[in-house]
Amino acid sequence: MTGLTPGVYPVNVLPAAPPNFLTGVPAFVGRAPTGPGTPRRLTLWPEFEAVFGGPAEGFLHDAVRGFFENDGVACYVVRLADTDPAAPSPDELERALAALEEVDDVDLVCAPDLAAAWRPGSAIDTVTGPQRALLRHCRDRGDRFAILDCLATDDPGIAAGQRDALNATDGAAGSYGALYHPWLRVGDRDGRPRHVPPCGHIAGVYSRGDRRVGVHKAPANEVVEGALDLRSDLTAEQAGELYARAVNCVRALPGRGIRVWGARTLSDDPAWRDVSARRVVANVHRWVERFMRGLVFEPNDIRLWVRIMRELTAYLDGLFQRGALKGRTAEEAFFVKCDSETNPGPVVDAGMVVTEIGVAPSAPAEYIVVRVIQGASGVTINAV
Q1: Which of 4, 217, 274, 337 pairs with 144 at a CA distance of 20 to 30 A?
Q2: CATH 3.30.360.90 in the chain, residues?
Q3: Are the beta carbons of 49 and 40 closer than 8 angstroms?
Q4: How far is it, in rounded angstroms, from Cα 275 to Cα 266?
Q5: What are the b/e assignments for 171-194, b being 16+ CB within 10 Å?
Q6: What pLDDT is stored for residue 351 in this prediction?
Q7: CATH architecture of the region 26-262
Q8: Residue 186: enclosing H or E segment and its boundaries?
Q9: By the 8 A CB rule, do 151 and 162 touch?
Q10: More confident position, 163 or 169
Q11: Distance, C-alpha 237 to centroid of its chain
Q12: In the chain, which residues fall in CATH 3.40.50.11780?
């Protein structure tokens, strides 16, 4: 190259790539014959049997197999130490969830053995109590979503009652999970049919949709691979009644196979009713948290505020271009505000940076405001 001072060479410096991550990555919590009690990442079905052994009491084996049968890419497995086939103890479940706190890759949580604790005539709370612990875990983190199994029942009324019980004590956590009914009929390694909770297969459907379209794709009207039949066949009327009660159905449709027929969270709040809306915001949460980690100890002035607005605007515009946000223009789809209004003198003096983000997910197309506060204790993200 000519025209350069001798000894001076051009160097192309590219900006650092924005943080990126795989979505549709579930953590499965359940019983297995062997294996570690700490989270283990798996990318192939044979890895599960090599690490955790073959089928055991419970449904962890079936859930992980169903995940990979439905084009799941990667998952984590946490083995419960409990040997009680009735239900994992609260302490053991909390230990497993605590072990997942340090795993950044996970955005879905499944515990297929929880629903197996119920028997006809027993109290629903034996299942809904531990399932609420999963919902609280996802709510407290803000970046995970629980895929929950209905009880092993043919009665749609019991399934609807389970949903009401899950939402009874903490409705705010309900938007962080979805409930699926009925159980699936699959073949085991000996070819004998058995009924299993649907969460593993459903998690694979989530992963498949994320990879093909993105987290804004509703995980519904998708074929469930690996299922031979259903524990019960729901009529269109029954499925409609359950969907109105925020229970997602799996249906056998003539000529179309077995499909997921619903994408509702447990929440009564219209803004958080759709699974895709919650997962889009959870995805924004994950991205913002990772981006903001790189800004710790930066001078808290207008230059930092402009940088935050520039990077977040570029990221949200990418979501808008992919169809995750609704609006004719980017201005209608989202906003980012980080200036002297969100950061008055007392906030700056306290060592915090406050950013407000508004997004309109493609469903339900209403603004959801996210408040991001960065301080000495880390990043706090609240969706309001």
Answers
A1: 337
A2: 289-383
A3: no
A4: 9
A5: eebbbbbbbbbbbbbbeeeeeeee
A6: 86
A7: 3-Layer(aba) Sandwich (3.40)
A8: strand 184-187
A9: yes
A10: 163
A11: 29
A12: 26-262
